[in-house]
Amino acid sequence: MDATDVELLEGLVHDVLSEQEGAAFADTVSWLHATAARVRQGDHASADALLQRLHQLAEGDLEPIIRACSLQLQLANIAEERERLRRRRAYDAEGETQRESLAETASLLSQHDVVAADALRALHVELVLTAHPTEAARRSVLDHVWEIDLLLDRVEDPRTGRSRRDALLRELREVLTIWWQTDEVRRARPHVEDEVRRTLYVFESVLYDAVPRTLDELERALGVSLERDGGGEPVLEFASWPGGDMDGHPEVGADTVTATIELHRRAALRLLRDRIGALARRFSHSERHVRVSPELEESLRMDALDLPSARVLRRPHHAWEPLRTKLGFMERRIINMLDGRGEAGYDSPAGLRADLELVAGSLGSEHVAHGALQRLLRQVDTFGFHLAGLDLRQNANVVDAAVSALLPGFAAAGEEERQALLADAIAVGRPGLGRRPEGTAGELVAALDAAALASAAYGPEVVRCLIVSMTEQPSHVLGARWLAQRAGAALDLRFVPLFETLDDLERAPETMAKLYASPAYRQLVRDQGDRQIIMLGYSDSGKDGSFIASQWALRGAQIELARQAAEEGVELELFHGRGGSTSRGGGPMYRAIVAQPTGSLRGRIRITEQGETISARYGHPELAERSLEQTLSAVLLASNVARPAASEDWRADVDRLARRSREVYRALVYEDPDFARFFFQITPIDALADLNIGSRPPARGGGDGTIESLRAIPWVFSWTQNRILLTSWYGAGTALAEGDLARYRAMNERWPFFASLISTLEMALFKTDLGVAERYLRLVEPGLREKFWPQVVAEHDKVKDAVLAITGRAKLLEGTRLRERLGHRDPWVDPLSHLQIELLERVRAGADEDRQALLGTVTGIAFGLRNTG
Question: Residue 344 above 50 pLDDT?
C-alpha cells in the first residue's frame, strides 16, 4: 500500500478530528493506532496500556473513537484501491503485460493453439448482483468515497501546482468533515427499494461505461470482432436479485417485482438518453463531408412524421447535419418512452440498434465508427431497455405450498406421484384451482403473475430466471414450472434448481436425471435452445459441513452435472452462488474460476456478486474494468486450456480430507447440544438483528435459537466479527494432519483446485486472530468456555501448521502484497474488537444506551476485514 496516500489521509483526518472533537481526542486516536501497532509487533506492555486506555475512555468518547477507527479503515480501503490502480497504470505505461489480463490470456490461448474466434464464439458471462445483509456501507458514504478518490487523483496529478494542491486539500478536509458528520449506521432498516437503488447506482456510476471499454479490450487483445452472426447473446450480461429474491424475505413479492422492473427500465432509458444526447452534440458532421445513405435519408423523413413534437429537429440548419439530426430524433424517442407521452418511441432495443447502425453506415470513417458509437452499440446490446434481468427466487417449501393449494391431490401424494401429477398438468395446461393461497405461497403466485405481465409488456429479458432454493426433489422444479405456466410466464423463464446442502449436492445428478427424463420438462429445455442453468450453493454447503467438504462436494457435483448434460445434449450453465467470505466461495475470482473442473464451463458461467464484494470490485471505473477483464480471462482459459488431471490417489486424498473435516466440523457445530449457546455468547450475532444493513431477517422464519435456522451469511459474519473465522477452517486441521505432507506439497504445486483450496485457507488463517478472539471469552459462561475454547485453539494450530508446511512458508502470506495490505488495517481493527467486547457485555446486561456504539464496532470491523459475509 502506498505510504503517501495513507499518510496524507491520516493527516487530513487528524485535522478534521481536531476541529470537530478537540486536539486531545485526535491525539488519543493517533495513540490508540500507534499502540495497537506496537502490540502487533509483540510489545506486551503496550497491550496492557491499550486495554487500560480503552477501558478508561469517557462515555462520551466511546462512539466517536469507534467512528474514527471505522473512518480510518474505509480510507485504508481507498488507499488500497488506489495502489491497485497505480499498478494497472504502471503496467500500461511500461508496455508490460499484466497478470490475469486479456492480453496475457490471448498469449496463453495462442500458446495452446486455441483459435481465438472459436473461444470467443462460445463466451457468455452473466454477473448477478445481489443484496447482501452484511454490506455495511451506506449510499451516502459511498458518495463521499467517490468524491475523495477523484480529489486524490487531482492532488496526485504532476501538473497540479502548489496553490491548486492547497485548494484540493481544503476540499478533501471539507468532504471528510461532512463524512464525519454523517451517520455510519442507518437509523432505520433499509427497504427493498433502497437495495434496488443501491444496485442501480453501481450500474449508473461504473458498470455502464466500464463494460464497453472492457469489450473493446477483449476485441483488441484477441484480434477478433465481437460481432456475432444473427445477433445472439452478448459476451457480458447482468442480472439482479434485489426486488425479486423472495426466499425468507417478507417484503418481497408482486409489488416489488413490478416496481423493480420499472426502476431498472427507467434507469436504462435515462442512461441511453444521456449517451445518445452526448453523441448528438459530438456528431457535427456536415452533409458536405459525409455520404448519407438513402436508408438514413428515408429514416429521417419517417422520424419527422412520427415525432411532430420535435420541431427543433426540423429547423433548416439541421438539414446540413444529418447525423446529429438523426441522433436527436433517437433521443426524442427515448424521452417519449420515459415521459409516457404516447408519441413514438422504440418497441425494442433492436429498433434503437438499427437506427444506430444507420448512423454508423454514413460515417465514412473506421476511426469514428469504432469510437463512442461502437461503445453505445455495446451498451444497447448488454443493457438494452432493462439494464439487468431480474431473477426471482423462492424456497422449495413455498413452491410446494403453492402447488398444494392449487393442484388437487398434490399435498397428499408421494414424490413419484407428485412428479406424475405435475407432468400431466403441464402437458395438458391444467390450471388447477382458481383461488390464490394465503401467505408466502400466495405472494409467489402473485409475483409470477406480475413477471408474466412485465415480460409481455417489455420482453422476456426483464425477468430472466426463477431460482428454487433448497431444491431436494424434481417436483420442486416441476412445481415452479407449472406455477409459471399458470401465470403465462413459462416459455422464456429459466427454471434454476439451487442445490445447497451437501446431501442435495450429492443427489443433484439424480434429481436432474429425473427432470431430463420428464417429457414436459425436457420439452421446455428443448424450446429454450437445449440450455439448462443449475445453481450451486456455496453458503449453506459450507455451513452444513465445513469448507473443504463444501468445496469438494461442489466440485464433484459440477463434474457429474456437466457429464450428464453432455450425454443429454444439453448446454449446461453453472451458476456459482459465491459470497465474500472464504467459507462462502470468496477469494480471488480469477483463481477460483481457473480451478474449476475441466469441461464444466464450456465458455458459459453465471456468478453472484454480493455486498462488499461489489464495492471492492466495482467501486471505481478502472478497477471495474480490471475485475471484468479477470473474470473474462479466467473463463476463456478454464474453458479452452485443459489443466493437468488429478491422479486417482490425489482425488482419494481430498475425498478423505472432505469426509474427515466434515466429521470434525459437524461433531462440534451440530452434534454437541451445548455449542449453539457457545456460539450465541461468543459472537455478536444478537447485535445483527439491530444493525440496519439489510432488509432481510438474519434467520428463516424468525429463527428458533438454533444454528440450523440461522442463515449462512449472518452465521459467517458473526464468526468474522470476533476474529475466529471458524467456518473458514475448522475441521481442516485434523484432516490435513492425518495425511501425507509430501503428497500435499505435490498437489499444491500441480493441481489448481488443491492450490486454490490451500491459498484460501491461508488467507482465512491470516485474518484469524485468536489473541483478540480469546478476549471474547469474557462473554461466555465458564463451563462452555472451558469445554469449547481448547478445541478451537487445537484445531486452529493444526490447520495453521499444515498450511505452512504445505506452502513451505515461515509465516502466513509471507512475501505477498496481501499480507502488507491486511497487516496495515489491524491496528485500526484491534481497538474496535476490544471495544466491541466491552459493549456487548454492557448491552447484554441491559445498557441499551450503548447499543448504537456497539453497532458502530460491527460496521467498523466489517470495513476493516471486508470479505465478511
Answer: yes
How far apart are alpha carbons 54 and 62 in whole angstroms?
9
Residue 489, phi then psi, degrees to nearest 5: -115, 15
Question: Which of these ranges, 2-11, 170-179, 367-376, 755-764, has the smallest mean pLDDT?
Answer: 2-11
Res 837: pLDDT: 95
Active site residue 798: no
pLDDT in tens, 119-128: 999 999 999 9
In the numeric block, which cell numbers belong to residue 9? 489521509
Instruction: Report H helices in 42-158.
Output: 44-55, 59-94, 102-111, 116-121, 139-156
3-class SS at 583?
A: helix
Active-site residue, selected from the candidate residues 124, 264, 326, 543:
543
pLDDT in tens, 265-302: 999 999 999 999 999 998 878 777 888 889 999 999 89
DSSP 701: G
Provide the 3-class DSSP secondary structure of residue 189: coil
Per the residue annotation, which of 124, 132, 386, 620 is the catalytic one? 132
- pLDDT, residue 207, reads 96
- pLDDT at 141 (0 to 100): 78
Helices (H), ranges, 670-812:
675-682, 685-688, 712-721, 726-729, 732-737, 741-750, 752-767, 770-773, 782-807
**Under 8 Å CB-to-CB from 254, ≥6 apart: which residues?**
443, 446, 447, 449, 450
Pairing assessment for the beta strands 463-469 and 389-395 based on DSSP bridges? parallel
Q: Write out the E strands in 584-676.
A: 604-610
Neighbours of 414 (CB within 10 A): 8
Identify which has the larger pLDDT, 689 or 659. 659
Q: Is 249 a catalytic residue?
A: no
Consecutive H or E run containing 572: strand 571-577
Q: What is the pLDDT of residue 3?
A: 62
Confidence at 859, pLDDT banded by 50, 70, 90: confident
Domains and CATH numbers, the chain: 1-96+139-182 (no CATH), 244-259+387-574+595-603 (3.20.20), 265-383 (1.20.1440.90), 648-814 (no CATH)
All cell numbers assigned to 744: 500435499
Worst-scoring range by mean pLDDT, 108-122, 386-400, 474-488, 681-695? Answer: 681-695
Does position 318 have pLDDT exceeding 80, yes or no? no
Phi, psi at residue 444, to the nearest 5°?
Answer: -65, -45
User: Burial letters for 291-314: b for 16+ Cβ neighbours within 10 Å, e otherwise?
Assistant: ebeeebeebbeebeebbeebeebb
3-state SS assignment for residue 575? strand
Distance between CA atoms of residues 518 and 473, nearest Å: 13
The set of long-range contacts for 751-755, using a CB threshold of 8 Å and a minimum separation of 24, is 751/644, 751/646, 751/650, 752/591, 752/594, 752/595, 752/643, 753/555, 753/595, 753/597, 753/646, 753/654, 754/646, 754/650, 754/654, 755/595
Contact between 539 and 500 under an 8 Å Cβ cutoff? The reply is yes
Write down the pLDDT at residue 136. Answer: 47
Strand ranges inside 380-506, DSSP E? 389-395, 463-469, 494-499
What's the whole-number average pLDDT of the chain?
A: 90
As to burial, measured by CB atoms within 10 angstroms (0-12 exposed, 13-18 middle, 19+ buried), residue 181 is: exposed
**Which H helix or E strand runs over 577?**
strand 571-577
d(CA 704, CA 707): 9
CA atoms of 692 and 696, how far apart (whole Å): 10
Cα(501)–Cα(472) distance, integer angstroms? 9
Q: φ, ψ for residue 423 (rounded to 5)?
A: -60, -40
Other residues' Cβ atoms within 10 Å of the Cβ of residue 760: 24
Distance of CA 853 to the CA centre of its chain: 28
Single out the residue of 672, 674, 807, 791 nearest to residue 736, CA to CA: 807
Query: Following DSSP, what letter does each residue of 734-768 receive, concatenated?
Result: HHHHTS-HHHHHHHHHH-HHHHHHHHHHHHHHHH-
pLDDT surpassing 50 at residue 219: yes
